[in-house]
């Protein structure tokens, strides 16, 4: 078969699959054109923003709530990809779907701030060593996701510079047992079994993905050190997940997740580019293999305005590499075991005949990090945190409310102990029953990664001292407008972010290499976000969003500012939902992106997804997911090193409920 005929066949296949989705969506809109309903709320309850239940319209912060239906409507196969369709969220990943390649972690970024999002599962933090990967979280186990944009350290502590993402797990409405099988191109397979009732839910799944010949363009040898050009590839891999939720009593809930991923990627010499003496293309080409295990556990007590969350999370990463000439594996120096555990207790008091409220809390936690490779056997670091926080909501009059909050956090650190104070001031004014305006001013911070407290010297690692090393910290200033009716909602937010003490690398006096962590950089961003959602009928929903901002950073010792993240984002979606038929199409478009290492600019990321789902009776359903319909080399990193998303891919899945 010729290359031209293969291309025609591929295009034809995509057109046929897309036409199925489009026809289902068009038919649904036509049938429902005259119907309306207010069964779908555009003013959801939000818990994360204030650490207590408030309506979105009465919350003085930029918030987004993604229901399990919203996640499904993006057409994405992973939670990581689904979140990227949210205004103000710009993900970064080396592997498709948020797949981590060892210490090359995926991360979720809010408002252009690198590593600026704190991830929670049922209110328990899962960030480890400064990383917030979502790899390994089953979409089928998610009830909703609450996203709060803006500095949130007053209520949540370190790492919430850009905001907080709280993933709330599924609680079934009735007893069920379900099996699901999914098959697709690119070697994708999924097997999932789940069961539960209103007090218990468990899901066990395994995914397989095939090899991809190229996941990057050719990388030029710009400084002449490598003596060759190379590109990246992905090998076969798999991902195992288990998720368990249990209501132990009316007051006590348990949540547990475990993921085990097996991934391989390669750096392959471009044929004909090697100029290094006494070397071959095989000896300079390498493959890296990773076994990555993660555990997240939480126990939540909730009774009579008192809530306590005990949590534990860990990551055990083992990696090895080989060159293609010897085919001998050797362990990586980046192997590690990181842990976080602690307890967060809060109580809410109602004051002045329920006009006011005060939330006070205490957080005690410990982070640990240790190297597990021979080269890092002496790498041991730990950090203790103790913080008191409070937030007072005062009703000035029935239309105007002000909220004052503060956190004091004492940190026992291996490099430099810290005492941190984080204030926040918010105002909310109700224009009428459907509209409100708000302001939100808050400070946020984050500490250095524990792994940054060591430097590489002569094949091993040594602890470093940094008495002047300070937390990254800064302010977020925001004003916004919200308008919500039974049929549509408008949200507008204007924000300004100003952060200092950004971590950078400095030369070690002994070796001259950049291995010592210092403060130095600055980050600023000013922008606007707009979100619009309309219920065209009781079955058809339209969603539109855009953000334009100017994220920029300034490195230490430099007077010029450089672009830090993409400036312009669009997202859109149309969804049809009926008793048996669901269909949707969703778009995420990033443009005005960064320069790459070759002197060009990261191309626009244009991700177009679609899905259609049909239920045969009460117990059987089939779903088709189409991802990257335009078959673009979407660059899912930002800046120098370009890594590509999967090409066009589809999945056909069948589910049966017993």
UniProtKB/TrEMBL annotation:
<keyword id="KW-0675">Receptor</keyword>
<dbReference type="InterPro" id="IPR039426">
    <property type="entry name" value="TonB-dep_rcpt-like"/>
</dbReference>
<keyword id="KW-0813">Transport</keyword>
<comment type="similarity">
    <text>Belongs to the TonB-dependent receptor family.</text>
</comment>
<keyword id="KW-0732">Signal</keyword>
<dbReference type="Pfam" id="PF07715">
    <property type="entry name" value="Plug"/>
</dbReference>
<dbReference type="InterPro" id="IPR036942">
    <property type="entry name" value="Beta-barrel_TonB_sf"/>
</dbReference>
<dbReference type="InterPro" id="IPR012910">
    <property type="entry name" value="Plug_dom"/>
</dbReference>
<keyword id="KW-0812">Transmembrane</keyword>
<dbReference type="GO" id="GO:0009279">
    <property type="term" value="C:cell outer membrane"/>
</dbReference>
<dbReference type="Pfam" id="PF00593">
    <property type="entry name" value="TonB_dep_Rec_b-barrel"/>
</dbReference>
<keyword id="KW-0472">Membrane</keyword>
<keyword id="KW-0998">Cell outer membrane</keyword>
<keyword id="KW-0798">TonB box</keyword>
<dbReference type="InterPro" id="IPR000531">
    <property type="entry name" value="Beta-barrel_TonB"/>
</dbReference>
<dbReference type="GO" id="GO:0015344">
    <property type="term" value="F:siderophore uptake transmembrane transporter activity"/>
</dbReference>
<feature type="domain" description="TonB-dependent receptor-like beta-barrel">
    <location>
        <begin position="248"/>
        <end position="629"/>
    </location>
</feature>
<feature type="signal peptide">
    <location>
        <begin position="1"/>
        <end position="32"/>
    </location>
</feature>
<dbReference type="GO" id="GO:0044718">
    <property type="term" value="P:siderophore transmembrane transport"/>
</dbReference>
<dbReference type="InterPro" id="IPR037066">
    <property type="entry name" value="Plug_dom_sf"/>
</dbReference>
<feature type="domain" description="TonB-dependent receptor plug">
    <location>
        <begin position="57"/>
        <end position="164"/>
    </location>
</feature>
<protein>
    <recommendedName>
        <fullName>TonB-dependent receptor</fullName>
    </recommendedName>
</protein>
<keyword id="KW-1134">Transmembrane beta strand</keyword>
């Amino acid at each position: 078969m010729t290359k031209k005929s293969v291309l025609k066949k591929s295009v034809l296949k995509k057109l046929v699959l897309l036409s199925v989705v489009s026809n289902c969506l068009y038919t649904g809109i036509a049938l429902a054109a005259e119907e309306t309903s207010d069964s779908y709320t555009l003013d959801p309850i939000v818990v994360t923003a204030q650490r207590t239940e408030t309506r979105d319209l009465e919350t003085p912060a930029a918030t987004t709530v993604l229901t399990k239906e919203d996640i499904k409507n993006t057409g994405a196969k992973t939670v990581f990809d689904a979140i990227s369709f949210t205004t103000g969220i710009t993900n970064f990943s080396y592997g498709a779907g948020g797949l981590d390649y060892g210490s090359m972690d995926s991360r979720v970024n809010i408002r252009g701030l690198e590593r600026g999002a704190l991830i929670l599962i049922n209110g328990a933090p899962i960030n480890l060593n400064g990383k917030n990967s979502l790899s390994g979280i089953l979409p089928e186990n998610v009830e909703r996701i609450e996203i709060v944009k803006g500095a949130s350290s007053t209520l949540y502590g370190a790492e919430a510079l850009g905001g907080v993402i709280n993933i709330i797990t599924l609680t079934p409405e009735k007893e069920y047992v379900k099996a699901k099988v999914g098959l697709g191109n690119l070697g994708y397979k999924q097997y999932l079994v789940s069961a539960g009732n209103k007090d218990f839910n468990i899901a066990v799944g395994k995914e397989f993905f095939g090899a991809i010949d190229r996941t990057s363009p050719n990388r030029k040898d710009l400084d002449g050190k490598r003596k060759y050009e190379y590109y990246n590839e992905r090998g076969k891999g798999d991902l195992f997940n288990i998720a368990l939720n249990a209501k132990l009593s009316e007051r006590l809930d348990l949540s547990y997740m475990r993921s085990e991923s097996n991934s391989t990627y390669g750096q392959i010499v471009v044929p004909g580019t090697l100029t290094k003496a006494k070397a071959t293309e095989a000896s300079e080409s390498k493959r890296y293999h990773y076994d990555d295990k993660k555990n997240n556990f939480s126990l939540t007590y909730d009774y009579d305005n008192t809530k306590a969350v005990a949590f534990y999370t860990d990551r055990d990463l083992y990696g090895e590499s080989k060159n293609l000439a010897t085919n001998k594996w050797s362990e990586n120096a980046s192997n590690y075991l990181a842990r976080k555990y602690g307890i967060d207790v809060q109580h809410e008091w109602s004051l002045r005949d329920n006009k006011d409220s005060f939330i006070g809390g205490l957080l005690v936690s410990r982070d640990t990090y240790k190297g597990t490779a021979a080269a890092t056997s002496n790498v041991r670091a730990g950090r203790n945190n103790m913080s008191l926080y409070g937030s007072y909501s005062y009703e000035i009059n029935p239309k105007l409310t002000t909220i004052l909050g503060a956190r004091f956090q004492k940190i026992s650190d291996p490099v430099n102990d810290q005492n941190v104070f984080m204030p926040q001031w918010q105002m909310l004014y109700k224009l009428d029953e459907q509209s409100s305006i708000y302001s939100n001013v808050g400070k946020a911070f984050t500490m250095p990664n524990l792994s940054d407290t060591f430097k590489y010297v002569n094949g091993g690692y040594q602890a470093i001292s940094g008495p002047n090393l300070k937390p990254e910290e800064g302010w977020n200033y925001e004003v916004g407008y919200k308008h919500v009716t039974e049929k549509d909602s408008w949200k507008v937010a204007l924000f300004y972010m100003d952060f200092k003490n950004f971590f950078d690398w400095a030369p070690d006096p002994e070796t001259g290499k950049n291995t010592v962590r210092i403060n130095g950089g600055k980050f600023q961003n000013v922008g606007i976000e707009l979100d619009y959602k309309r219920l065209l009928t009781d079955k058809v929903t339209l969603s539109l969003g855009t953000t334009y901002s100017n994220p920029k950073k300034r490195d230490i010792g430099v007077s010029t500012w450089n672009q830090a993240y993409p400036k312009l984002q669009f997202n859109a979606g149309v969804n049809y939902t009926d008793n048996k038929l669901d269909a949707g199409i969703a778009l995420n478009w990033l443009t005005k992106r960064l320069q790459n290492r070759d002197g060009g600019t990261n191309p626009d990321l244009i991700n177009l997804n679609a899905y259609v789902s049909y239920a045969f009776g009460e117990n059987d359903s089939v779903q088709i997911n189409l991802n990257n319909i335009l078959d673009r080399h979407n660059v899912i990193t930002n800046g120098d090193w370009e890594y590509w998303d999967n090409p066009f891919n589809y999945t056909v899945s069948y589910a049966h409920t017993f």
